[in-house]
Amino acid sequence: MNGALQMPEPLLSVRGLRVAFGTPRHELVAVDGVDFDVRPGEVVGLAGESGSGKSLTLRAILRLVKPPARVSGQVLWRGRDVLRMTEPEVRGVRGGEIAMIFQEPMSALNPVLTVGTQIRENLEEHTDLDRAARQARAIELLDLVGIPAAKARIEDYPHQFSGGMRQRAMIAIALASEPQLLLADEPTTALDVTIQDQILKLILRLRRDLNMSVVLVTHDLGVIAQTCDRLAVMYAGRVAEAGPVTEIFERPRHAYTLGLLNSVPRGGVLRQPLSSIAGQPPSLSNRAPGCAFAPRCPFVVAECRAAPPPLVDIAPMHETACIQHRKVGQR
Amino acid sequence: MTFATLTAGTIGRAIGPRWTLVAGATMLGLLILIAIAPGVFSPYDPLAFDYKAIMQPPSAAHWFGTDNFGRDILSRTIWATRVDIQIAIFSTLFPLVFGTIVGTLTGYYGGWLDAIFGRLVDLVVTFPFLVIVIAIVAVLGPGLFNMYIAVSILGWVFYAQLIRAEIRVQKQSDYAAAARVLGYGEMRLIFRHLLPNAITPAVVYLMTDMALAILLGSSLGYLGLGAQPPTAEWGVIIAEGKNFMSTAWWISVFPGIAIVVAGVSFSMVGDGLADLFRRRR
Questions:
Q1: Which ipTM value was assigned to this complex?
Q2: Which residues of B touch A167 (CB under 8 A)?
Q3: Considering the domain boundaries, does residue A302 fall inside one?
Q4: Binary contact (A95, B184; C-beta < 8 A)
């Protein structure tokens, strides 16, 4: 036992997660060896632009990625590998222990069932409550996520709710079984800024009250700064940099993270022209042999193009896959 | 915008957006009422001959006239409603249920199941529907029961196609993923979450199909392959009157109108339902 690190054991531990499409000869690797941990009560952000593999990573954790896509690696949920569980075992984990909410609250709710029916259905599947208790709990949950007049609205259909309320209803459904981990796939992207803020605060409050962990996938660094404890930045299917949010925001150690942060407007500082990262993210079929960011990187050296740089520890809990991390850190 | 469209819009709003559904359902309700209790509405025995009153034109005593045996056409048309509504129901019940099950399973699972049923469906739709129904009935022998068999053998493919396509769309939806994420079993996912969202086009088609079934039943009745005389059935009555078209038009025309009314009311209900479902999305 190593007593030096006072970190609790991770709840979820993803190791070498890989998702590939296409034929074995022309393989398109969308997620390429992703590692990250989630500890109890922690909010971990997965950031990256479109196509970086963040949503696919999230879906692969719950085995939602279906053939012909091939998923390999390990997803250790409290020591058990989700990818090697039997179908009934996975179903016990899904919903019961790990819940997930989606980007589009309109399409993620079943349009022909009332919100109440959908909450009660999850309670029926994952708890021992009787009919009356399920109804009471459903109203309680709707109230908990901040829907006014929950009792009156519970038999409403999803189309009678506004966008923000639908997202709240979806959270209520997901939380009905009291999961220990909530996977949130861009939960606020489809909402306007004020509602976005309310939903994020709600997720944080529920995290505290129900003592659950959260994995938040987003392309919005502002959302990450506001909510997450730790952050993993993804680029072209790999983790580029992972570490505590404050540390990464203050001193990014990967050229891509630096570029991302420089392209976000900040309040309270002198206005400057926003910089953007030149070029386009690489397509799935056209990956460079070395670091995928090398073609766009201002710090690039010959070594970067040779082989994909591995993630290396540069501080406790902070790792980066950048050969130039020292130079990036000094900028 | 012209005055005419303005007025039409105003009237449309006044009647309400679902007027086709309301009108269709009212007519259909009336037909079903007649089918349940024809004796209440019919003034005469539909099978009783009356040689003192043959080939009577429409009159106060015989509103729709009489035929060459003196049978009252109004009574025959009313009693035929029962037979034809039965045809509408029995010709579509099995296709609806079986087609829905096949469409749901092939749409969800795909693979070899889909391949087998897909070829079967292709095979059936290759042939003209009426021709193959007539062929099957001719082999099995005339009569309504054999017509139900023929229609059941073929009719399910249309429902299977509709449901399969819709299930394949719904399967990819976010709420299906959400239901999977909640750890629900496959049967619950398919029959509670996907099917209710996929069945709408099939329900709308069911109404059209019922109208078509009545037409088919009448056609077969007319050809002597469906309901057998002296049973009162709209197609049979029309066939009986065909030799007297120039002298006693009323024998064939009134049951013909009944077919049109039944067809239109089924279609209007189908249209209205389609509209209603669209609005709810």
A1: 0.73
A2: none
A3: yes
A4: yes
